[in-house]
Amino acid sequence: MMKASFNVKRLKNILGFIGILILAVLASLFLGYVAVTFFPGVNIQQWFQHTKLFWFAIRLVIYGIIGGLVHGIHHYQPLSRKAIGLLVLGIMCFETLNILYIIG
């Protein structure tokens, strides 16, 4: 009986996460639609190029938050080196692609 309630709780958490993820995607699509429909004369790529340092700072703040959360999780339940290494590798690959985009 105890195992069944654990599975239900886990299923609710997973479904809640998926729901939040779907809402985030829909909100992004809506914002993109509004930007394209109501601001047709704005060059979004040029705007991103002018504000690239601002977006870099935003990414650094997000990475700091992720690092703090990973540290908090690691404090209560140690993570494997492989999990931490994959997280760092993912961030490094993402930032390398961003730097190559800015340079090129």
β-strand percent reads under 5%
Overall 3D shape: flat
Topology order in helix (H) and strand (E) letters: HHHH
Any idea what the radius of gyration is? 19 Å
Distance between the termini: 59 Å
Total beta strand runs: 0
Output the number of helix runs. Answer: 4
Overall pLDDT, averaged? 85
Which blocks of ≥5 consecutive residues have pLDDT under 50?
A: none
| Helix content estimate | over 70%
Name the structural class. Answer: mainly alpha
Tally of individual domains: 2
Largest sheet: none
Keywords:
104 residues, mainly alpha, 0% strand, flat
Topology:
Elements: H1 2-38, H2 44-50, H3 52-76, H4 81-103
Task: Describe the structure concisely for a colleague.
The protein is an all-alpha fold and 104 residues long.
Explain what you see.
Helix content is 88%, strand content 0%. With 104 residues, it is mainly α. The chain has two domains: 41 residues; 62 residues. The model has no long low-confidence stretch (mean pLDDT 85).
